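anyone seen this seq b4? input:
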Amino acid sequence: MFEDIEEFGPVEESDKKLKFFYNRDERISKAPPLVKEYYNGGLRPVKGFKVLFTGYNKFIFLSLIFFVAFTWIYTGLNKTRKYTEICGIQMELSAFAYEEEIYVSLNMKNAPKKIKRGFSNLIPKKKNESEIPQKIEKVVAAEFFYIEVNNQLYDKCFITDVYEGKEKSIRTKFTDYDIIRVDVIINVDDEEKELSCEVKR
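predicted toks r here
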């Protein structure tokens, strides 16, 4: 049964020693062109802003510029702008539909004061009469326009209120006849701003 099996004797010591000959120049000469270029000092990584204009990065960078420009133009031309500031008062317009009514709210609150940068703000100042907070009373006139699905004026109303420096809202409602948008013209101290918002459903 085991007659055809060749028997192996002990491996000689000379057979165990293997020699490996390495020639770098010969190996590089047989390498692909990309490897040769790397070993010759090529394929250096591009650093700084230049990386934006190499290969596929160029198309990504141009796409990003196009997207930012489109967003900026769309925001500027979009008619629905529901936030504004007028005479130191922040205004926010909102409208939503519930059952067969449209509820509109014009929220008002004080605009945050802008902090001037510089060393003059670090020096403590004495309080005088001009720095003592005074009571604010401003007459706010708001004219609401209700725009239907065909972009036609359905109805309008005029409301006046007094803003006294605290958070306040001017609210109104009207019957829903496929109203899609509410516009309002606000007048405070002869300064006029226009807001617009879509009706949430």
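The CA atoms of residues 87 and 188 lie 7 Å apart. The chain has a mean pLDDT of 78. kinda curious what u guys think
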